[in-house]
């Protein structure tokens, strides 16, 4: 599985087959549904909105709660806004050949245009701030190696919002019970587990909360290393390695007791 | 008679019990050739003082920057066309990107590539990121050149690296450029 996902990274950066304009994607289709995960990826404080469109009459195969499978023709959008203004809308589309297509659209006025597969790492916002628009390789870096390429519309990240999706009858084979998580565990799953899962990066740190096997508590040494990397934005040491340029101070406060558990005193 | 047969049996069985070293395969030999002709040891096998002057430390072949060699900050160069410095070990470089160190390419699981898969290795070269999804691979690692290796050649290099003695050597993390 990991080999197949990583081999996706080796595909040459092809010209996009996604449409050039966001308005040419089916985002305005009547069947598009908004969703919001309970446990969310940190994106430097950007306000994010998400939508999903399934082909008519199709369902998500949710029998494996750790790796949902989506029908061909699925679309997902994720819009990033700063100070009320949309900056980019990222798109995933599972095409007729069963391949996930990834892209992002940069907002210019009332329209959003497809960014080249190389991304725009040195993009500037109107107020002069730096904002990196991801390349296709950046998309693959997080999505291709995960248990399922769709990271936010999944059992654990949806959390207490899962039952509404089960009732919507858009999920086939899903348990009706949401995975109840400590917020700290949920944060780490949403921000780290797309790489740090048992079939993921070759690092002995598993932050994936599995519906089959639960979670693996990090060791004391691992917790110290996690803190060190979460507290820096040195690009060579930070975690996550991409997608964020600012420390998530709220998360560090949330994770304070998780990352610094009280030592038990032996009798 | 029983004793004789026992001894004979042991004499016959002993070679089978002693595991023979794996015979070099064509792929491993191709990998050895590529590593020995592509300049890998320039940055990944440290120089050390020898009886006839500096020499490669082949006892720690391809194990990267020696962990016990702690370097002071690199000298600040004046503005101008000369912009990179190299430590005398040949395994640490400073330039506009900051300071980078030759990685440990031996199969040690904690400090080298022991846990990596072939796919992780190939993805590193194809994307210029560690394992295809981590931090950027920094200069002077010539990713723009080595990314042109064929899959077969990268697999051969990886196969050869797996045959090296695993050496525990924790190479320092790279540092970003010093803030002005």
Can you give a write-up of this model?
The complex is a heterodimer of chains A (267) and B (180). By secondary structure, chain A is an alpha+beta fold. Chain A is built from eight helices and eight strands. In chain A, the strands form two sheets. Chain A has a six-stranded antiparallel sheet, covered by helices on one side. Chain B is an alpha+beta fold and 180 residues long. In chain B, the strands form two sheets. A three-stranded antiparallel sheet of chain B has the order 3-4-5, with no helix packed on it. Chain B has a two-stranded antiparallel sheet with strand order 1-2. In chain B, helix 2 crosses helix 6 (151-162) and helix 4 crosses helix 6 (151-162). Residues 12-22 of chain B have low confidence and may be disordered. Chains A and B meet through helix 1 and helix 2 of A and helix 4 of B.
Summed up:
Chain A has 267 residues and is an alpha+beta fold. Helix content of chain A is 21%, strand content 17%.
Greatest interface (CB-CB under 8 A), with counts per chain: A-B, 22 and 24 residues
Name the helicity range of chain A. Answer: 10-25%
Order of helices and strands of chain B: HHHEEEEEHHH
Number of helices of chain B: 6
Rg of chain A from C-alpha positions? 19 Å
- Count of beta strands of chain B: 5
Number of helices of chain A: 8
What form of chain A results from the Cα inertia axes?
A: globular
What portion of the residues of chain A fall into strands of 2 or more residues? 15-25%
Across the major sheet of chain A, the strand order is: 1-2-4-5-6-7
Class computed from helices, strands and strand pairing of chain B: alpha+beta
Key features of this structure:
heterodimer, A: 267 residues, alpha+beta, 6-stranded antiparallel sheet, two-stranded parallel sheet, 8 helices, 21% helix, 17% strand, globular, B: 180 residues, 3-stranded antiparallel sheet, two-stranded antiparallel sheet, 6 helices
């Amino acid at each position: 599985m990991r080999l197949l996902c990583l081999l996706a990274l080796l595909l040459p950066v092809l010209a996009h087959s996604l449409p050039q304009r966001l308005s040419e994607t089916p985002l305005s289709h009547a069947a598009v549904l908004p969703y919001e995960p309970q446990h969310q990826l940190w994106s430097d404080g950007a306000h994010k909105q998400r939508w999903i469109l399934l082909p008519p009459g199709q369902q998500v195969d949710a029998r494996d709660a750790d790796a949902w499978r989506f029908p061909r023709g699925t679309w997902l959008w994720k819009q990033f806004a700063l100070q009320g203004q949309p900056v980019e809308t990222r798109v995933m589309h599972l095409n007729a050949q069963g391949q996930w297509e990834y892209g992002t659209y940069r907002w210019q006025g009332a329209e959003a245009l497809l960014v080249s597969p190389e991304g725009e790492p040195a993009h500037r916002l109107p107020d002069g701030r730096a904002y990196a628009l991801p390349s296709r390789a950046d998309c693959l870096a997080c999505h291709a190696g995960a248990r399922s390429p769709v990271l936010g519309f999944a059992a654990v990240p949806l959390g207490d919002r899962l039952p509404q999706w089960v009732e919507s009858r858009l999920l086939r084979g899903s348990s009706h019970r949401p995975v109840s998580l400590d917020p700290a565990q949920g944060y780490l799953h949403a921000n780290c587990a797309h790489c740090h899962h048992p079939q993921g990066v070759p690092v002995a740190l598993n932050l994936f909360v599995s519906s089959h096997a639960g979670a693996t508590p990090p060791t004391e040494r691992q917790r110290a290393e996690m803190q060190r990397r979460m507290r820096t934005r040195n690009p060579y040491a930070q975690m996550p390695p991409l997608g964020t340029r600012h420390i998530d101070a709220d998360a560090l406060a949330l994770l304070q007791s998780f990352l610094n558990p009280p030592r038990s005193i032996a009798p | 008679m029983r004793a004789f047969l026992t001894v004979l049996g042991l004499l016959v069985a002993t070679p089978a019990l002693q595991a023979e070293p794996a015979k070099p395969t064509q792929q491993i030999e191709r990998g050895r050739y590529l590593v020995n002709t592509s300049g890998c040891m320039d940055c990944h096998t440290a120089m050390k003082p020898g009886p006839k002057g500096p020499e490669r430390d082949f006892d720690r072949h391809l194990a990267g920057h020696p962990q016990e060699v702690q370097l002071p900050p690199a000298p600040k160069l004046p503005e101008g066309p000369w912009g990179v410095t190299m430590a005398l070990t040949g395994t640490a470089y400073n330039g506009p990107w900051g300071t980078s160190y030759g990685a440990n390419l031996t199969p040690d699981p904690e400090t080298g590539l022991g846990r990596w898969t072939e796919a992780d290795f190939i993805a590193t070269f194809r994307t210029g990121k560690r394992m295809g999804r981590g931090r950027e691979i920094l200069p002077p690692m010539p990713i723009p050149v080595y990314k042109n290796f064929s899959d077969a050649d990268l697999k051969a290099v990886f196969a050869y690296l797996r045959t090296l003695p695993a050496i525990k050597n924790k190479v320092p993390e790279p540092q970003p450029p010093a803030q002005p």
